[in-house]
Amino acid sequence: MTNSQTGIFENEIEEKFQNQSVGSLISFYRRSSSLSITSFGQFFEQNSSGIEETNGKKSKDLTLSSDYTKEILFNEENILNSLSQNKKEKDKEIENQKQKRKTIQKKNEEEKEKEKEKEKEKEIEKEKNEEEKENEIKNEKELQKEEKKEKEKKKKKKKKKKKEKKKVDEEEKEKDEEKKEEEEEEEEEEEEKEKKKKRKRKRKRKRKRKRKRTRKRTRGRH
């Protein structure tokens, strides 16, 4: 301990211990020393001086002897070392508490970041699902549109085919009718020819018979 530190401590003892109450001395001593209250009380009793009357009761004199002052000075280095050690331990404990708080705070911040990441992932997943759903709806609409288009196309094709068939049938019918008419005409022509042939043969026979009759008449005249 340096001289300046010793002087400060002596002044403090002079100020604190002159005519102070027992309670004040004990309180100061507890704050300044690692000694227990019991050891201090025993030491105080050994170094106190005299007894006086107060309201008919006896009490210890509150003035400390010079021996007590010497004893305090003798132990000052131990007291200061103890205080220094206590301060170091307290500082260490405070530092440990700070580190614990920092660790807890860091852990909490990491947890918060994880939660934020989870929320972000959930939001991304939600957007992805919504996009997939929209794409499904869009694809479904496109598919329905294509199906409708294909259906209309088939319908038109069928209608066209039906129309063409009808046209072909009508043409075939017309052809059949024309053919029938031609056949009828041919039949009529054939019938007419036959009739003509018959009339011709008939006329021929008739002329032949007529000539025969004429010849017979002619022979009869001669």
UniProtKB/TrEMBL annotation:
Residues 171-192 have a biased composition (Acidic residues). Residues 80-222 are annotated as: Disordered. Residues 151-165, 195-222 have a biased composition (Basic residues). Residues 86-98, 106-150 have a biased composition (Basic and acidic residues). This is Zinc finger ccch domain-containing protein.
